[in-house]
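In practice, a research group might receive sequence data for several interacting partners and want a quick structural hypothesis before committing to experiments. The following worked case mirrors that situation: the sequences arrive first, and a predicted assembly follows.
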Amino acid sequence: MDVKILKGANIKLKGVADRVYGNIQNSTLYAIKPSDFHLVVPKMVVKIGDIVAAGDVLFYDKNNDLIKFTSPVSGVVDNIVRGDKRKILEIVVESDLEIKYKEFEKRNLVSLNREVIINDLLLSGLWPLIRQRPFGTIANPNDVPKSIFISGFDSSPLAPDNDFIFHGDTELFQLGLDIITQLSPGTTHLNLDGNSNAAKCFSGAKGVQINNIYGPHPAGNVGVQIHHIDPINKGDIVWCLNPQDVISIARFFKDGKYDASKIIVLTGSKIKKTRYYRVLQGMSVKDLVKDNLIDGEKRFISGNVLTGTRIKEDGYIGFYDFQVSVIPEGDYNEFLGWLLPGLSKYSLSRTFFSWLSTKKEYELDSNTHGEERAFVMTGQYEQYMPIDVFPVQLIKAILIEDIELMENLGIYEVHPEDFALCEFACTSKVPVQSIIQRGLDIIKKECS
Amino acid sequence: MKLMKNILKTIKPNFEKGGKLHTLYPAYDAFETFLFVPNHTSSEGAHIRDSIDLKRTMVLVIIALLPCLIFGMWNTGYQYHSQLTLGMAGYQDIYSMWDHFLFGFWKVLPLIIVSYVVGLSVEFAFAVSRKHQVNEGYLVTGMLIPLVMPIDVPLWMLALSVIFAVVIGKEVFGGTGMNILNPALTARAFIFFAYPTKMSGDKVWVHNGETIDAISGETALGELASLSKLDVVSNQSVFNQLFSSEGMYSLYNSFIGTIPGSVGETSVVAILIGAFILLFTGVGSRIIMSSMFLGGLLMAYIFNLLDVNLFMSLPAIHQLCVGGFFFGMVFMATDPVSAAQTNQGKFIYGFLCGVLSILIRVVNPAYPEGVMVAILFMNVMAPLIDHYVVQANINRRLKRIQK
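A structural hypothesis for the assembly, expressed as tokens:
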């Protein structure tokens, strides 16, 4: 199926990664952050000083004790970092030099069935990789999804290039797909970037429906793809994965151990050499960016600049992130900045004279370029919203907490990341993503 | 620059929590952010943000209004001087272009000053009492109001209309972004209905029209309305004289704008320059502008076909060029807050604005300036239009479930 996305925009950022793998020494500190898993309430299994192997459970979800979170490395639980109200923020594990893996039962790959797959994924701690729509939370193993969606590409700014990463992984990827397709009686969709030539493992994938998505960001967002291919109605559940998750699952069933490795990309205008790296889940960013930073105030983001999570310089890569972005912090005042021609100011509109410039890439910082204001400009979000919802009306419905109106306006079809471009472009600097998240939380609470 | 930064830095503690002047913080904040784009960094959501903000948007609208303002100043002087010297031999040579402009400049400037000083004072007062930041919306309203006024409007009346517009038109609904009616048009409507003698007739559109015994100080629309009232055969010749290519309200003059009228509304050329700026930068809605133009053109064309009176017989394009149709289309109907907010809604809203503008002005000669009434009426209807557009989206979604 071909899908053409007309609305959206690609932001031209400086710091695109070279298609080269970089070498780094293995980090010693790894962390799993419960905050990566929205609405999960962690119940600790380990305490500081415990010795764990890779695949040993660190904590599980209080709301659903089937869902377990395991250690990506073997070593000693070094710290459990708590924030306000003793909320658990990070479980830090100091890694052994040589990783010892917990042994899982090796399955006969031919005779795998849905029950066994789900059971093994839950035990290994790989289950949280599977997320559901609506809500974008970890899938409930008791649900039967109507279909499964894998977005084969990431269209967000400076995103990793999956066609590069997956070069030569054809067999493993197909194995993963064969396993995953058993999770749903419906179709498994693999969505590829119509604007480029997909890697062989994608274009040659069997047992799945391949869809080509054309158009600018957010074409790569799985929510946008679902909307155009097999939209979610109230009560529907769709499971989603990232292609690298497919590989992780395949590797687990092939080797019988939890190998938490993944490929991430280090990007951003404050990075000297932007590279791809093979790392383990939850690696310390400090070790990743060592000797590779450009001077100046920096903001570290796990994920991309639109939807990623702000982390500290010594923070850890998020569970769902395949990208670390480092951009300049925009902590400065600008004299009459709203009045100047703005030849080098990036804007999706033509309100600054930067439309004159033929510059290919811009170095954007975290400055908001203005204060939050009442909602005035209309028609702006609509330009960047390829889902057939009325973004402003939906946001207003959330602000007044009108549940029925939210449902009618299609809250089940959206996720904060789909609104990231709206938030970027917003003249009034409205925190759109957090409002959408609030709406989803209200609905989720109402549903349960 | 650094000096200013230091001054701000030294006085800031007075306005911060615990400071003596803390209640005035919104006022201080408005000045600080006016001078310096604040050093705020994104704390949630997207880490990078577009350079655009509300100040930039508003300043672009003001820039788009400048051609109208400058032409309006010139035309004020031009109208006055040409009435003054009417009948004199070689009168064209007495006053230069520059004289016209300077004369108008000193006449229009007080209107602008009063509009801004009064309007911003009210805005600041509300911001301080409600403890929110000063929104930039009034920067545009404050410029629009003088441009839609007759040149001789008494300043106290202007001040009163500004207060009415800001308080009743905007603040009672919750301030910028919440208002139902376009504040600038609310100000004009206030004077129109409260002091009709200052807003209609043939004496107010040219400076000192009452004393210099202006022979033709009427707006084109007023002239048309009175010509259409009585079915007198001689009217046809007056009409021909005024609206033919040689006449005072010829298509050329109406397009260039050398006719009496509100300060900024007369020149279609100046308005179109503004429209280009708004459309190119994406600040103004091209849907509303184009659909309103279409609606107005269609209605004027239908009247051409009916051709019952002289007003209706005016060719469609000429009909649109006289009066405030273009000004309303480019600067008033496009106000994003009071217009429809959905794209389909905007089309319907703009189209009806155009149809109603021409309909009201032609069919009801008591309101020769139909644009103002039409847009205000459609402002009220806009939420209803949006409601049905949104409902259609909801129904689409419900249908999908049933399938």
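Before designing any experiment, note the following. The first helix of chain A runs from residue 114 to 124. The radius of gyration of chain A is 22 Å.
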